[in-house]
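ARCHIVE CARD
Drawer: 12
Card no.: 0347
Subject: one protein chain, sequence and derived structure
Cross-reference: see card 0346
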Amino acid sequence: MSIDQLLAAVDEVLEQGEALLTGLSDAQYAQGATGGSIGAHYRHSLEHFKILFEAVKDSHVDYDRRERDPQLQTERLAALKTTRDFREAARFLSTLSPERPLEVRSRISHAAPLSYAVPSTLGREIMYAVSHAIHHHALIGMICGLGKIAVPADFGIAPATIAHRQQHTSTRRFA
């Protein structure tokens, strides 16, 4: 997979987030629900992209050192600006190799207070950030569904699921 394909996926998921944010009110974005607010889930996924972009300078990723910025969680327009900034920032990664090595650090156990480090690549971590955002978009979609709030088409649905549904639908028509 080329860096351009990976960055197109980043842009796609951030564009979905931008579409969501432009369709919400400030109150809807910040309002809490069981399992968190729309803003909390959206902030969480944005912070993973921020860590990824910072890794380009540092050659390591530490998913535990997220800032947990309350402004991104409660202020829809701040999240929208950050989303747009990240869409622009992603373009600057196009000169890098997806094979560029990174060290990824994270706590993986509640019982052990240690962080572990493993080797990875820029391409793998871009894939993770996109997949992670889609996962949180799905949770946001559930919160929106409970609140009768419309979300963009295919929001929070994995690309493989969309492809499976399309293939399954086309198979039924011709069977």
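Annotation on reverse: The longest strand covers residues 101-107. Residues 3-174 form a domain with the Four Helix Bundle (Hemerythrin (Met), subunit A) fold (CATH 1.20.120.450).
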